[in-house]
Amino acid sequence: MVELTTTDLMIAAMLVVVLALLSMRLRSNISQQLIIAALRTAVQLTLIGLVLKVLFENATLGWVSLMALFMLLVAGREVMMRQERRFRGWWGYAAGTFSMFLSSFAICIFALIVILGNDPWYAPQYAIPLLGMLLGNTMNGIAISMDRLTHAAWEQRHIIEARLMLGESSDEAISEYRHQAIRSGMIPIINAMAAAGIVSLPGMMTGQILAGALPVDAVKYQILIMFLISAGTGLGTLAAVNIGARRLFDERQRLCLDRLREP
Amino acid sequence: MSKAPPLLQINRLRRLMIGPVSLVVDEGDCLCISGDSGAGKSLLLRAIADLDAHEGQMFLQGKPSDAIEPASWRRRIGLLPPESNWWLPLVKDHFTDSSALPLEQLDLSDDILQQAVAQLSSGERQRLALLRLLANKPQVLLLDEPTANLDPENTQRVEAVVTGYRRAHGAAVIWVSHDAAQVARIANRHYAVKQGDLQAQAIEGRQWLS
């Protein structure tokens, strides 16, 4: 494996700077955002590298759990922020975070114990990257599907209420939008699986190959990850959409759009 | 012999600026409600259909609304909103049984069922929405300006269909209308919404208040 030096990274950073200068000349105001995002990448990844180094040296269940919890809470916040009309109050945070906990944690622990079978099962070299990839992907699915659901409930409120007026249950009245929301949450991972290896070389596999792993081994890991991600995203999306669809109605099956925030 | 409970009883219903409203509706009643726009007539109907959270109790044939499944309550107390909504491509998709609809009574042709909803005029949609609601066989009809965008002939047709349904099924009707002549044609009781309260009104052109 070719060791990267700070100079190597500086050279790559020059490309971003050149791009920023170019867009400034074209009077595009994206350059500031670009530089800030690039700086964030450098700082955040350096910090996480240090955190992981310490964590790997202190591989106790307590520290690994703490790290996992921290990742979950940050991902939960991200899910909440990405929704235009999220639920008011703590529901806005809890619905997505709970769904991610349910799906990512369950799938991750299952994979660590049943498939990988390390000793100890929570070995952070496996647990943290695996959880990170699961959270990152379920986060997308859950955020997209919840956004889609609450958006549809708002846009189609007259139709949902018309169906209630005609004696449909809240489940029947929202079912179409629930299906659409689940579908849009799962489409990205389905597309990623379908295109993997043909259109795109998945990042994790590429990283492993660059780090010196045999392609066949890297591919096996990538397949495992894809399956875990699709299971996690599917479970998480189902959970989030079902929690959300329930929360849109009260105990008398009235559509409660006042439970959603204004965008 | 104890007297049978009224068809619909409303006790101290409150919702935003509406109420407390108390009302007893018997089988065969046709109540007309009028009032300025923004007075809360639609809110009152929505609350009776239990579409909005409200204070107070409602009883259908003596049974409290809480003891009736929400979907069943709304099937039995059918609300027709001012604007009809359609969510499937064809008209017939919105009817479970489209064989015995009294289409001709509303001057609609049989093949309208095969048409796309998008091709209908607003008046056709409004009349079809009434038939869609009646197909549920509601015991109480809540009609929110059902003839607002219909011509005089179709207005009278709608009145005849609703009156016919009311008599055939012993149903009650709560009808929001601004038209004094219409009120005189159809109502046996007339109320105005004023400052959130229902006030009994005389029916113009009639000597008696029943």
Please sum up the structure shown.
The complex is a heterodimer of chains A (263) and B (210). By secondary structure, chain A is mostly helical. In chain A, 77% of the residues lie in helices and 0% in strands.
Keywords:
heterodimer, A: about 260 residues, mainly alpha, 2 domains, about 75% helix, B: about 210 residues, alpha/beta, Rossmann fold, six-stranded mixed beta sheet, four-stranded antiparallel beta sheet, 5 helices
Describe the structure.
The complex is a heterodimer of chains A (263) and B (210). The N and C termini of chain A lie far apart (48 Å). By secondary structure, chain A is mainly alpha-helical. In chain A, helix 1 runs antiparallel to helix 2 (31-57) and helix 7 (170-195) packs antiparallel against helix 9 (215-247). Chain A is 77% helix and 0% strand. Chain A folds into two domains: 1-57, no CATH class; 59-259, no CATH class. Chain B has a single domain (8-201), classed as Rossmann fold (3-Layer(aba) Sandwich), CATH 3.40.50.300. Chain B has 210 residues and is of the alpha/beta class. Chain B is globular and about 45 Å long. Chain B has a six-stranded mixed sheet, sandwiched between helices. A four-stranded antiparallel sheet of chain B has the order 2-1-4-5, covered by helices on one side.
